[in-house]
Amino acid sequence: MLLFPCPNCGPRNETEFHYGGQAHVAYPEHPAELTDREWAEYLFYRQNTKGLFAERWVHSAGCRKWFNMLRDTVSYDITAVYRIGQEPPALRTSQPTTGMGMSTTRQGTPEGVQL
Amino acid sequence: MVNTTESTDAQITDVQQTHLTARRHSPAEHLWAEFAKTASAEARVSLREIPFQVMVGIRVDPLSEGGRRIGAVTGGLPTACGQVTTGVAGMAVLWLGPDEFLLVAEEEALDGTLAAELVAALGDGAGQTVDLSSNRTTFELAGPSARAVLEKSCAADLHPRAFSTGVAIATVIGNVPVVLWKTDNETFRVFPRASFADYLGRWLLDGMREFTVAESTTWH
């Protein structure tokens, strides 16, 4: 069982939550001016990160609110949760990886986050 | 509309209401006989349904003007997960989300004007108050083993240090989304949606069996 720290409800079982995909994918400012390819990339192209990843979750069986979470897709470590609309918290760089990670350092900013 | 017409309308509504009240069915009434078998003086845990409670769904920002006016009717609105505020006539407001609350009250304790009062209190403020009385039914699980029964299939931390008397949370019991309210040391109220009442009622009865079977002294 994995405990997710919901910003509203505190630690709850992961089965109470639903996944919302990569976080911080901004809606295009002028969607009508995009080419089909750019629009398709906005709609469907997502990071496939191995490591720390910013993603959206909804506490569907609890407070029913969306929030963002920084989760390691290899170790399932949850580094931070923060509210929708907030920037991801600054992270320490050069954290040593554990387990089966190939690299020895991590990016300071998780993939998929455009600051 | 003049006053005399209003009072006539109210009388007709009362008669119709009484008529309807006598004919309605609660979602788990077919299980009442099974529930009754769990109740005895020495029972470790017992289960009953409390049918037809008044429930009102409230969606409002508690810090807004409308939220404050609604709070004045209900005896305040809870501000954090787990909190329950109590008001007049046994009215309780459970926290479901930062802007979502569930008002629960005994039907007998209210005079039927609550919904209208809440709508008037919200006024033109952003939000909604909706009568959800038929949405959920109420189970009451009580006894020294009540927590042990729930913990079989509820992943939320129900230890008294995390879930004390008076706390209510929205969570999941045996795959059924419920609101769980600890009303006393060994008493839990479970609010499943009506269509889950049969399943959850049987599920809880099954979980209670090991605690309700009479202890045998002939075991070897």
Automatic annotation (TrEMBL), chain A:
BP GO annotations: tetrahydrofolate metabolic process
Top-level taxonomic group: Bacteria
GO molecular function, one term: sarcosine oxidase activity
Record-linked InterPro entries: SoxD, SoxD_sf
Region feature (Disordered): 89-115
Polar residues composition-biased segments: 92-108
A Pfam cross-reference name: SoxD
Name of this chain's protein: Sarcosine oxidase subunit delta
Organism from which the protein derives: Cryobacterium levicorallinum
From TrEMBL, chain B:
UniProt-listed SUPFAM superfamilies: Folate-binding domain
Biased composition (Polar residues): 1-20
InterPro entries associated with the record: SoxG, TrmE/GcvT-like
Annotated stretches, region: Disordered: 1-23
Alphabetized Pfam families for the sequence: SoxG
Gene3D superfamilies per the UniProt record, alphabetical: Heterotetrameric sarcosine oxidase, Probable tRNA modification gtpase trme, domain 1
Name under which the protein is recorded: Sarcosine oxidase subunit gamma
The organism of origin for this protein: Cryobacterium levicorallinum
